[in-house]
């Protein structure tokens, strides 16, 4: 099983291939994905990299976290599982909180 890594602070012009190449120095990259805005298609400045081994992933995290890439400082750490999203928006219901 591979290790999923969160990569923040990625320059908006970075391609998935460039992200993969950056991590490949530290081990076998299974996948690299730049997250984009669903309406504009523009990069949101972060992505995820999946590596084949835990030791390779840890080596990449240790080597790349806090380093400069394309003029920006990268935040690299183990990805946390995505939290379930609720379907509704925030806000108060009618009369809630006022008595």
Strand and helix map with partners:
Blueprint: E1 3-8, H1 16-24, E2 29-36, E3 43-51, H2 54-64, E4 68-69, E5 72-73, E6 75-78
Antiparallel strand pairs: 1-3, 1-6, 2-3, 4-5
Q: State the CATH architecture.
A: 2-Layer Sandwich
Morphology: globular
First-last Cα distance:
54 Å
Quote the average pLDDT. Answer: 89
Total domains? 1
Total number of strands = 6
Helix content: 10-25%
**Element order: H for helix, E for strand:** EHEEHEEE
Describe it.
By secondary structure, this protein is of the alpha+beta class. It has a single domain, classed as Alpha-Beta Plaits (2-Layer Sandwich), CATH 3.30.70.330. Helices cover 20% and strands 31% of the residues. It has helices at 16-24, 54-64, and strands at 3-8, 29-36, 43-51, 68-69, 72-73, 75-78. A 4-stranded antiparallel sheet has the order 2-3-1-6, covered by helices on one side. A two-stranded antiparallel ribbon has the order 4-5. The protein is globular. The mean pLDDT is 89.
């Amino acid at each position: 099983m591979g290790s999923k890594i969160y990569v923040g602070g990625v320059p908006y012009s970075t391609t998935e291939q460039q992200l993969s190449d950056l991590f490949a120095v530290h081990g076998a990259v299974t996948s690299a994905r730049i997250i984009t805005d669903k309406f504009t298609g523009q990069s949101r400045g972060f992505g995820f990299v999946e590596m084949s081994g835990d030791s390779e992933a840890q080596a990449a995290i240790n080597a790349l976290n806090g380093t400069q890439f394309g003029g920006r400082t990268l935040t690299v750490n183990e990805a946390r599982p995505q939290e379930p999203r609720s379907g509704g928006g925030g806000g108060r219901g009618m009369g809630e909180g006022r008595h």
